[in-house]
Amino acid sequence: MNVCLGVVKTMLWTHLAPERREKWLRRLFQIGVVIKGVDGVLETVGGALFLAVSRSTLTRIVFHLTRPELLEDPDDLIANALRHAFSHLSASGKLFGSVYLLVHGAVKIFLVIYLLRNRLWAFPTAIALIIAFIGYQIYRLSTHFTCTVLALTILDAIVIVLIWHEWRYLRRRRKRAAEHGPDVYR
Fold first, then answer.
1. Cα–Cα distance between 170 and 154 in angstroms, integer?
2. Domain residue spans in the chain?
3. Amino acid 12: pLDDT
4. How many CB atoms lie within 10 A of CB 144?
5. Beta carbons of 133 and 104 less than 8 angstroms apart
6. Is 127:163 a contact under the CB 8 Å cutoff?
7. DSSP assignment of the chain, as one string?
8. Which of 79, 134, 84, 74 is nearest to 104 (CA)?
9. pLDDT higher than threshold 60 for residue 8
10. Distance CA 63, CA 66 (A)
11. Model pTM greater than 0.85?
C-alpha cells in the first residue's frame, strides 16, 4: 500500500509546480465535497422513502428490481443478498435504516453547504463527523464485510485528507491577508 502511494505521489507531485499541485488539490476537494453533497441528498431522499414505504412494499420493489438480473444470472450475489435482506427486514431494522440515512444525509448536506462557503468552523466539524461515520463503517465491516462499505470508507478517508488540506490552505491564506492586506487574498 505504501509503495503504491509513494509511486503515485512521485508521479504526481514531482512533476507539478507547487502552484499547480495546490490548484489540483483544491479542485479535488471541491469535487469530493460535491460528491458528498449529492450522496447526502440521495441518502436523505432514500431515508424518507424507506421510512414512508411499508416493509412488504419494499420487499416487492426489491424483488421486482432484481428479477431481470436473476433471470440472467440466478447466482448473482448482490441481487440474492438484497432479496434476502429485504425479505428478513424487521420493523426496528427498517426504522434504524431510515433514521440513519436521514441523519447521515442531512448532516452531509449541512456540512457541504458550509464547506463550499469556506466557513472555517465547518472543516474540523466535518472531519470529526466523517471520522465518527468511518468508525461506524469499520464496526459494520467487522460484523458484515461488504466491498461497498469498504469503498465508501476509503472514499471518506480521502475526503478527510482533502478537507484537512483545504482547511490549512484557507487558514494560511486568511493569515496572510490579515498580515499583508486584502490584495494577498485574491
1. 25
2. 34-173
3. 57
4. 8
5. yes
6. yes
7. -HHHHHHHHHHHHTTS-HHHHHHHHHHHHHHHHHHHHHHHHHHHHHHHHHHHS-HHHHHHHHHHHHHHHHHH-TT-HHHHHHHHHHHT--HHHHHHHHHHHHHHHHHHHHHHHHHHTT-TTHHHHHHHHHHHHHHHHHHHHHHS--HHHHHHHHHHHHHHHHHHHHHHHHHHHHHHHHHH-GGGG-
8. 134
9. no
10. 5
11. no
Q: Judge whether 167 and 123 are in contact, CB under 8 Å.
A: yes
Asked whether 40 and 115 are in contact (CB, 8 A), the reply is: no
Residues 42 and 35: beta-carbon distance below 8 Å: no
Q: Which three cell numbers stand for residue 29?
A: 476537494
Q: What is the pLDDT of residue 49?
A: 92
Average pLDDT over residues 18-25: 84
Please write the tens of the pLDDT for every residue from 96-128: 889 988 998 999 999 999 999 999 999 999 999
C-alpha cell belonging to residue 108:
452531509
The length of the chain in residues reads 186
What confidence category does residue 51 fall into, taking pLDDT thresholds of 50, 70 and 90? very high
How far apart CA 86 and CA 88 sit, in angstroms, is: 5
Q: Cα separations (Å) of 128 from 55, 124, 160?
A: 34, 6, 9
Indicate the burial class of 166 (C-beta count within 10 angstroms; 0-12, 13-18, 19 or more): buried
Placement of cell 472555517 in the chain = 120
